[in-house]
Design brief:
Strand order of the largest sheet: 1-2-3-6-5
Structural class: alpha/beta
Largest sheet: 5 strands, mixed, barrel
CATH class of one domain: Mainly Beta
Order of helices and strands: HEEEEEE
Number of helices: 1
Distance between the termini: 66 Å
Length: about 140
């Protein structure tokens, strides 16, 4: 019984140590292409939350709603990329043009529970006359 408990504890400890390291190695960025270096097969993307990074494209990089690396150009907006750390560099596993519409995973085009930006408590009878608030300057 002690041997089984010890094995279970070791396995659990190994899993909790390994899991965060694997997820920390993959990141997602979304933003505008700042520059493209065709010779080095890299591009820089500026993410408003994470800053600007240089990303390398390989033959394994998948492109969605883009014709490939050749379609990337400075100023191209609404680009999403999933990157992983490899050899001290960020390498793109996927690059795609965002804004493709759709339901973002709920499997339905017409979600009857969608309140179109109005919360369940927004009956239109608040002190704003049904208008959305303006933030900290609401009175």
């Amino acid at each position: 019984m002690k041997k089984l408990l010890r094995t279970a504890l070791i396995a659990a400890a190994a899993f909790t140590i390994a899991a965060p390291a694997a997820s920390a190695q993959t990141r997602q960025y979304e933003g505008t292409i700042v520059s493209v270096d065709r010779g080095a097969r890299t591009f820089q993307i500026k993410d408003s939350e994470r800053g600007t990074i240089r990303v390398r494209v390989t033959s394994s990089t998948r492109f969605e709603r883009l014709a490939g690396f050749s379609s990337l150009r400075a100023g191209l907006r609404n680009i999403e990329t999933t990157v992983r750390r490899s050899g001290g560099r960020w390498v793109a596993t996927e690059v795609e043009r965002s804004g493709g519409g759709g339901s973002h995973g709920n499997g339905s085009d017409d979600d009857s529970s969608d309140d179109h930006g109005r919360g369940a408590d927004d009956s239109g009878s608040d002190d704003h006359g049904g208008r959305r608030g303006r933030g900290s300057d609401d009175r």
